[in-house]
Design brief:
four-stranded mixed beta sheet
Length: about 210
């Protein structure tokens, strides 16, 4: 059974008022994941450009005038670039409506209460949510809190700052992952959250 993985969490200061995510964010996140999977060396070039905006452990990239504090600074970015330079291009991930519904359930339950993590208030984990939708337990899940654009969401997952083992990156680049459902929505604390549930099959079955 595939394990679900730790959440990815930005270190930006939480905002008290949630904001609606931009239209098409979910489709854009999946498209960005697929660009990163199918063109890893091109994605490495994007990270090289991103690296230029660091001053110490704070990155001041365009569109983020307040800056984003990281735990590792450029060290995590450099490690991600090395990984991408060695990474073989993979097949794109196809959208899976059932997995998207399970991801949406987590956004709707967690966002209004400002929760974080893979567990719902009732103790349900990603496998439980997919199974409640009629699927199977063979799924992995990644989450971001805060990033408002697809590029920022996927970049956070790939750089994986302060995440031991770079589990989110490994999930996105797992060749057996062929399907995903993405859901994004307002979060009472980090403004926006995005959940991606991934599986070998579109319904999480073995």
């Amino acid at each position: 059974m595939l394990p679900f993985l730790p959440l990815a969490l930005t270190l930006a200061v939480p905002e008290p008022a949630p904001a609606q995510p931009q239209a098409g964010l979910e489709a854009a996140v999946l498209a960005e994941i697929n660009f990163a999977r199918t063109h890893p060396r091109d994605y490495a070039e994007r990270l090289r450009e991103y690296r230029k905006y660091f001053k110490g452990k704070i990155v001041w990239y365009p569109g983020n005038p307040d800056g984003l504090r990281t735990e590792e600074g450029t060290r995590a970015v450099d490690e991600a670039i090395r990984f991408l330079e060695r990474q073989t291009p993979l097949e794109p991930i196809a959208p899976a409506p059932l997995l998207a519904r399970a991801a949406r359930d987590h956004v709707r339950e967690q966002g209004p209460r400002g929760g974080t993590g893979h567990y719902s208030a009732d103790g349900a984990d990603p496998r439980d949510r997919v199974q409640k939708r009629g699927g199977g337990p063979y799924v992995a899940e990644v989450i971001t809190y805060g990033p408002p654009s697809a590029r920022e969401v996927v970049r956070q997952l790939i750089v994986d700052d302060a995440v031991p083992g770079r589990g989110h990156r490994k999930t996105l680049y797992a060749a057996e992952m062929r399907y995903a459902g993405v859901a994004c929505g307002p979060h009472n604390g980090y403004r926006t959250m995005c959940v991606a549930d991934l599986g070998r099959k579109p319904d999480g079955q073995p």
